[in-house]
């Protein structure tokens, strides 16, 4: 059995809500759509998907709550764009922390 503290450290490396958002194929498609099309309204995004607009809206809300997309209100409409800086920062932070964890706790991992 592993040391409970090591298990807790490893669990903390992975932001479960962040990965839950990324694990949904439709949300990945929305990220791809925004990457290809830039800033878009919910109407523009939902036109590119077979799901109802309300479903796309819920996905975008979850992505916004996790900091993956930025929102900008223009009049009555909300526009969405990828929050590339934060998305990259979070992935790099997870990678750096995982590397440190493995160096300290995984003798068979070599110099990661």
In summary, what is this structure?
With 112 residues, this protein is of the alpha+beta class.
Describe this structure in words.
The chain contains six helices and three strands, in the order αααβααββα. Helix content is 64%, strand content 12%. The protein starts with a helix and ends in a 7-residue tail after the last helix. The longest helix is centred in the last third of the chain and has 22 residues, at 84-105. It is of the alpha+beta class and 112 residues long. The protein is elongated, with a radius of gyration of 18 Å. The protein has helices at 4-13, 16-23, 25-37, 42-47, 53-65, 84-105, and strands at residues 40-41, 69-74, 77-82. A three-stranded antiparallel beta sheet has the order 1-3-2. Helix 1 (4-13) runs antiparallel to helix 6.
Observed structural traits:
6 helices; elongated; 112 residues; three-stranded antiparallel beta sheet
């Amino acid at each position: 059995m592993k040391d409970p503290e090591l298990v807790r450290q490893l669990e903390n490396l992975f932001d479960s809500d962040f990965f839950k958002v990324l694990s949904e194929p439709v949300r990945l498609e929305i990220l791809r759509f925004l990457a290809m099309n830039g800033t878009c309204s919910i109407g523009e995004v939902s036109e590119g998907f077979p799901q109802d607009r309300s479903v796309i809206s819920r996905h975008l809300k979850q992505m916004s709550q996790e900091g993956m997309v930025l929102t900008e209100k223009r009049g009555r409409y909300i526009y969405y764009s990828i929050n590339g800086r934060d998305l990259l920062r979070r992935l790099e932070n997870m990678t750096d922390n995982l590397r440190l964890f493995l160096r300290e706790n995984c003798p068979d991992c070599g110099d990661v």
